[in-house]
């Protein structure tokens, strides 16, 4: 009987000892005195806590990833809008087209790149024509419809199968069909101005191609006679200029 009581008391004491050890605060490691303490100065305090991880959380999405996702969504929206007739998608498609064809200063960026690296920034190799300091009309012809007719541009009559040349060097920001001027090429120049070449029968340049002055843009032909019509306009600061006042042309009819 006494042995059982002694065994029970021993178990109770053992459990109390374990609880005390579990509840006791963790002991700090012993650190020897620093040199500052030995000479009467306060010790240098350094933290022994858990170091913070300076790297970003793996669960937090990166800013670059968000940009890539948004760009992919925008590209998909424009691609779907190009191949479908959803009216809701026409807005984003028109906005992207406007930004890339009109608002972005392609010619200015090309000139900046050329000044620093010696060669124009381009996707398509430019045509090798000598640069001329004097402006010349895109075709040889006479003005049959003056600028005052609609306040946008002029119409010239020229020989059939005439080659249309760039008035100044620039970047092609439009090459295709226009509702008013049919097959049309629009060049953007370094100063932000644009020259517009319409009524073309063929187009020899591509979108975003860098062309030099007097480079061939296309041609004009007519099946009705020995002469063909050509539309030409100059736009600067969102206003149309009279090409006759900018370039010396033959206004005789």
Task: Output the keywords.
single chain, 253 residues, Glucose Permease (Domain IIA), three-stranded antiparallel sheet, 11 strands, 24% strand, elongated
What does it look like?
- There is one protein chain.
- The protein has 253 residues and is of the alpha+beta class.
- The protein has a domain at 88-253: Glucose Permease (Domain IIA).
- Helix content is 30%, strand content 24%.
- It has six helices and eleven strands.
- The strands form two sheets. Strands 1, 2, 4, 5, 6, 8, 10 and 11 form an eight-stranded antiparallel β-sheet that branches. Strands 3-9-7 form a three-stranded antiparallel β-sheet, with no helix packed on it.
- α3 crosses α4 (90-103).
- The longest helix is centred in the N-terminal third of the chain and has 22 residues, at 2-23.
- The protein is elongated, with a radius of gyration of 39 Å.
Indicate the CATH architecture of the domain at 88-253: Distorted Sandwich
Largest sheet: 8 strands, antiparallel
Strand content: 15-25%
Name the shape in a single word. elongated
Q: What would you call the structural class?
A: alpha+beta
> Quick check: average pLDDT?
76
Can you tell me the CATH class of the domain at 88-253?
Mainly Beta
- Poorly predicted regions are 121-132
> If you consult CATH, what is the topology of the domain at 88-253?
Glucose Permease (Domain IIA)
Distance between the termini: 138 Å
| Percent in helix | 25-40%
Number of helices: 6
Number of E-state strands:
11
């Amino acid at each position: 009987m006494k042995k059982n009581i002694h065994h029970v008391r021993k178990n109770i004491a053992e459990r109390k000892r374990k609880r005390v050890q579990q509840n006791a605060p963790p002991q700090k490691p012993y650190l020897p005195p620093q040199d500052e303490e030995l000479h009467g100065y306060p010790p240098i305090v350094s933290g022994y806590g858990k170091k913070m991880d300076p790297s970003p959380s793996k669960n937090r999405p990166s800013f670059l990833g968000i940009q890539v996702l948004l760009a992919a969504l925008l590209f998909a929206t424009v691609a779907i809008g190009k191949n479908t007739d959803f009216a809701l998608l026409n807005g984003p498609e028109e906005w992207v087209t406007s930004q890339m064809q009109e608002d972005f200063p392609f010619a200015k960026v090309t000139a900046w790149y050329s000044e620093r690296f010696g060669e124009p920034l381009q996707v398509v190799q430019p045509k090798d024509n000598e640069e001329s300091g004097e402006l010349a009309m895109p075709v040889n012809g006479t003005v049959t419809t003056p600028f005052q007719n609609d306040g946008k541009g002029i119409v010239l009559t020229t020989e059939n199968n005439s080659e249309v040349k760039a008035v100044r060097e620039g970047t092609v920001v439009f090459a295709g069909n226009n509702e008013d001027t049919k097959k049309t090429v629009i060049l953007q120049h370094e100063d932000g101005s644009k020259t517009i070449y319409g009524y073309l029968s063929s187009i020899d340049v591509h979108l975003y191609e860098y062309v030099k002055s007097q480079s061939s843009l296309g041609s004009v032909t007519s099946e009705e006679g020995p002469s063909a019509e050509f539309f030409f306009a100059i736009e600067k600061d969102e206003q149309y200029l009279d090409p006759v006042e900018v370039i010396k042309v033959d206004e005789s009819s």
